[in-house]
């Protein structure tokens, strides 16, 4: 009927590195973006497997355009 396959591999531990390309417009810490002023900023998240140096990191970016709010 069915086969049960399991792996003896330990789970991987991923590390996510966050970066803002313009910290005068917005900062990012642990995935939380803090807007500081109007402008355009790119937020980058890079996931790395800290248990495996052979796996390339996965990167994604988010482009934010922040406008001023009216009073």
List keywords for this structure.
71 residues; mainly beta; three-stranded antiparallel sheet
Helix and strand topology:
Blueprint: E1 14-20, E2 26-29, E3 32-35, E4 39-49, E5 58-66
List low-confidence stretches: none
Please report the distance between the alpha carbons of the first and last residues. Answer: 68 Å
Which value, in Å, is the CA radius of gyration? 19 Å
Q: In order across it, which strands form the biggest sheet?
A: 1-4-5
Secondary-structure element series: EEEEE
Rounded average pLDDT: 83
Biggest sheet details: 3 strands, antiparallel
Give the overall shape: elongated
Kindly estimate the percentage of residues that lie in beta strands according to DSSP.
Answer: over 45%
In short:
The protein is mainly β and 71 residues long. 0% of the residues lie in helices and 49% in strands. The termini are far apart.
Describe the structure.
- With 71 residues, the protein is mostly beta strands.
- The protein is built from no helices and 5 strands.
- The strands form 2 sheets. A 3-stranded antiparallel beta sheet has the order 1-4-5, with no helix packed on it. Strands 2-3 form a two-stranded antiparallel ribbon.
- Strand 4 and strand 5 form a beta hairpin.
- The radius of gyration is 19 Å and the shape is elongated.
- The termini are far apart.
């Amino acid at each position: 009927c069915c086969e049960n396959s399991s792996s003896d591999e330990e789970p991987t531990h991923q590390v996510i590195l966050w970066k803002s390309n313009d910290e005068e417009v917005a900062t990012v810490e642990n995935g939380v973006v803090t807007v500081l002023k109007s402008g355009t900023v790119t937020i980058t998240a890079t996931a790395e497997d800290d248990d495996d140096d052979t796996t390339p990191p996965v990167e994604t970016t988010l482009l934010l355009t922040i406008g001023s709010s009216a009073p």
